[in-house]
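Final report, closing paragraph on structural work. Over the funding period we assembled a curated collection of sequence-structure pairs, and we close with a single example.
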Amino acid sequence: MARVWRFGDSVNTDQIIPGRYNLTTDWAALGRACFVELRPDFTSGVRPGDVIVAGEDFGCGSSREHAVIALQAAGVGAVVAPSYARIFYRNAINRGLTLLECSDLGSLADGAEVELDRISGVLREASTGREWRARPLPEFAQRIARHGGVLELVQAHGGLRGECGPDCGSGLAPVPGGESDVR
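Its predicted structure, as stored:
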């Protein structure tokens, strides 16, 4: 079961990972500094596979890939929000972080236990059974996510268009309580 971490509108990349941490290539250090100023309790409480539920324009600000790496290194399994900054969205897709778009998440509380099916985009609150339907990832993004990122996809196939078999790219980390593979 994944837990929800709520954030508001316009969470920018400096809030996800402050610029002073962008001098390191140590992913674990980036994960430990994720939301260090905006939500200091985040890194001590986040569990692998937890889901960020945010407002409009998540990931606005600079185009740094460090923001996506910090989220992944902290253990975030997916982000669900009404909209994303364009460059952040593409960086997340390239790195294999699941981003789903859903506009009506107002009643989903911080700390709620949820199950997420990344294929269909269904987010289900465990205590109430209430469901939200996000727009599923486009097929190309599912394929990249299955491989863990665009570089991993290219390494597996020698390019972006190689054929995938039934077990191809099964390295996608599961969202606890949800679908473990994006097929």
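Residues 171-183 have pLDDT under 50 and may be disordered. Helices lie at 13-16, 27-32, 42-45, 66-74, 86-95, 139-147, 150-157. We thank the funder for supporting this effort.
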